[in-house]
Write a structure and sequence with these properties.
Radius of gyration: 19 Å
Structural class: alpha+beta
Length: 192
C-alpha cells in the first residue's frame, strides 16, 4: 500500500471527552513498536492512552502558564504537538472550533513539516466532510462514532495525501530559490 510509506494511520477524538470519533490504520498497530502492540491493536485502548497523554501535556502547560513570571496570560500553543515512539512520530493537531483532536502516526523519516502538513490537511478535510454531523452533535460532544463513515471520508483522506507532494515540491523550490538568491547577493555584495 503506497500510503503506508508516508502514513501509518490516524485517529480523531473529541478533544474534551476523549471519545474516539474516527480511526483509520494503514499498517498494523499504527506502525508503533511491538512493546505497544497490545494497545496499538485496539483503537479504543490506543485512543484512550493518547488522550491521557494529551491531557497530561495540557495540564503541565496550564501549570506552567499559571506560574508565568510576568503574571500575564499568553496565547496557548497546543500542549503536545509531536512525540517520537520508536521510528514513528505521533503528530497531535487540534481543531478548536470543532473540538477535535487528530493524532497522526507517520514514519519519523517523513519529517516534521511534511507530517504536520498532512495532519492539518486531514483535519481540515475531516471537519469539512462531516461539518453537518459535527454541527448536529454540538461540535462532536454527542456525535456517535458510527456517524463518521470511513467510506464517506476515504476520498477526502486520499485528497489530503495527494496534497502533500505538490506542497513539498513547492517548499523545496522556494528553498532552492532562497539559497540561489542568497548566493547571488553574497557574490554581488548586495543585501539579501
Amino acid at each position: 500500500d503506497e500510503r503506508s510509506a508516508m502514513l501509518h494511520g490516524f485517529m480523531l477524538l473529541n478533544q474534551h471527552t476523549g471519545a474516539l470519533l474516527f480511526s483509520r490504520r494503514y499498517t498494523d498497530g499504527f506502525g508503533l513498536p511491538s512493546t505497544m502492540c497490545a494497545a496499538a491493536s485496539d483503537d479504543m485502548r490506543l485512543s484512550a492512552m493518547l488522550f491521557a497523554v494529551h491531557l497530561n501535556a495540557a495540564s503541565v502547560c496550564t501549570d506552567e502558564l499559571a506560574a508565568s513570571a510576568d503574571g500575564e496570560a499568553h496565547a496557548a500553543s497546543p500542549p503536545l504537538v509531536h512525540q517520537l515512539v520508536g521510528s514513528v512520530r505521533l503528530h497531535f493537531c487540534v481543531h478548536a472550533p470543532r473540538d477535535l483532536l487528530l493524532v497522526l502516526a507517520a514514519p519519523a523519516a517523513l519529517g516534521l513539516p511534511c507530517a504536520d502538513f498532512l495532519a492539518a490537511a486531514l483535519m481540515r478535510n475531516f471537519a469539512a466532510c462531516f461539518a453537518a454531523q459535527l454541527d448536529a452533535g454540538g461540535a462532536g460532544h454527542a456525535t456517535p462514532r458510527s456517524t463518521f463513515r470511513k467510506r464517506e471520508f476515504a476520498p477526502r483522506a486520499l485528497a489530503a495525501c495527494a496534497e502533500l507532494p505538490p506542497w513539498a515540491l513547492a517548499r523545496a523550490r522556494d528553498a532552492v530559490a532562497r539559497t540561489a538568491h542568497a548566493s547571488t547577493c553574497a557574490r554581488d555584495g548586495s543585501p539579501p
